[in-house]
Amino acid sequence: MRRYTKPAVVVTALGTLGLTAFGSGAADAAGAADGNTGAESSTCVTAVSASRNHGTAQLNKRVMQRFTSEFLPTGDPASARRFISPDIVMHFGGRAQQGRDTYLGIVAANMKAFPDLKWTVEDMRAEGDTVAIRYTMTGTHEGPFAGAEGTGTKIHAESSAFYRLSHGKIVEERAQLDMLGILQQLGALPAA
C-alpha cells in the first residue's frame, strides 16, 4: 500500500502546481475538490511554490556554473550572449552601469590589465532568482588598472557577487571586489 502513496502525493502536488498558474481561485477550488480547505490548501500551494523556487534556484545555479567555467576564462563576446542579458545592470563600487557591451568592456579592460586573470569559484549559493558567488581572483598586473600602470606584480584578491537571473540570463550583478587589497599589492596605496 505504501508504494502507491508517494505517486499519489506527487500527482496531487503536480496538479496543484498546474492550478497555481491559473491563480489562487483555481488553487482554492482544488483544495475544496480534494477535501482540503483554507489553511490546508494554502499550505499545499506554499509547499509547491517553495519547490518551484528551489527548482528555479538550481537551474540558475547551473547557468552560473557554466558562466564561470565557459565565459569568465575567455571573456568571449559570443559566449556572453548565452549568459548575459543585453540590458544587464551592474553595480560595482557604488556605481550603476548598464548594458552587455559595457559589461564586455569592463571584462576586456580587466583582461588587458591582467592577461593571466583567473577567477576561482570558492562558494556558490542559489535562492530563487539570485545566485551568490564568492571568488578568488589571481593575475599578473601587466596593463593599466585603476590608474596604476603595469607593475608585473602578481595579485590575489577576493570578490563576492550577487547575480539576478531571468529566463536563464544574468539581468543584474552586484559585485564587491577587494580593491583596497589589490591597490596595496600594486603599491598604489600603502599597506596597512
General description of the model:
With 192 residues, the protein is α+β, with helices and mostly antiparallel strands. 47% of the residues lie in helices and 29% in strands. It has 6 helices and 6 strands, in the order H-H-H-H-E-E-H-E-E-E-E-H. It has helices at residues 2-20, 24-33, 39-71, 77-83, 100-113, 179-185, and strands at 84-92, 95-98, 118-127, 130-140, 154-166, 169-177. The chain has a 6-stranded mixed sheet with strand order 2-1-6-5-4-3. A hairpin with a 2-residue loop joins strand 5 and strand 6. Helix 1 packs antiparallel against helix 2 (24-33) and helix 2 (24-33) packs across helix 3. The chain is globular and about 45 Å long. Residues 1-39 have low confidence and may be disordered.
Indicate the percent of residues in helices.
40-55%
* Mean pLDDT value: 80
Strand content: 25-35%
What structural category characterises the helix and strand content? alpha+beta
Beta strand count:
6
User: Main sheet, how many strands, which sense, barrel?
Assistant: 6 strands, mixed
Strand order of the largest sheet: 2-1-6-5-4-3
Distance between the termini: 69 Å
Shape: globular
The oligomeric state is: single chain
Number of helices: 6
The arrangement of helices and strands along the chain is HHHHEEHEEEEH
Given as residue ranges, the uncertain stretches (5+ residues, pLDDT < 50) are 1-39
Rg from alpha-carbon coordinates = 23 Å
Give keywords.
six-stranded mixed β-sheet; alpha+beta; 6 helices; 192 residues; disordered N terminus
Which SSEs are present, and which pair or pack?
Blueprint lengths: L1 H19 L3 H10 L5 H33 L5 H7 E9 L2 E4 L1 H14 L4 E10 L2 E11 L13 E13 L2 E9 L1 H7 L7
Parallel strand pairs: 1-6
Antiparallel strand pairs: 1-2, 3-4, 4-5, 5-6
